[in-house]
Amino acid sequence: MFIQHSVRLPLAHDRALRQLAISRQSTPYALLQECVRTGLAALQNQGSATQATADLMREVGMVGAQLAQSERILERALYVACTAAIYGRIATAGRVDESKLVREISEAFERQLRLAGGEQ
After folding, report:
1. Pick from 6, 11, 33, 86: most CB atoms within 10 A?
2. Burial, 82: exposed, middle or buried (Cβ in 10 Å; 0-12, 13-18, 19+)?
3. Greatest alpha-carbon span in the chain
4. The model scores a pTM over 0.85
5. 3-state SS of the chain: helix, strand, coil percent to 5?
6. How far apart are the C-alpha atoms of 92 and 30, rounded to whole Å?
7. Residue 86 CB neighbour total at 10 angstroms
8. Residue ranges per domain, the chain?
9. pLDDT digits (tens, 9 = 90+) for 16-48
């Protein structure tokens, strides 16, 4: 069942409609009906598309937060490994100055970060 509506188009839209109808081997009236159907479908689905986008953005944010937490854990593990390596190296040397020890650990940690491409 069809209901008749009168539609007024600006001249530019009429020309575009006629040219597109010719290129599609259709009539301007058939193409106008297709435009109305497509436009209504797009407007009806607009809310669900917005919700899907919001859901995707929320998921991306959660993944980003988990990645940041993983990076912190990996940096901490690297720091602990550097500390163990420095302690192991100086264990045979006997008593060492605490400030020198902290400096060597920090230098080793920074060096490993640079080698990994994660300069701070």
Report:
1. 86
2. buried
3. 98
4. no
5. 80, 0, 20
6. 90
7. 21
8. 11-116
9. 999 999 999 999 989 999 998 888 888 887 767
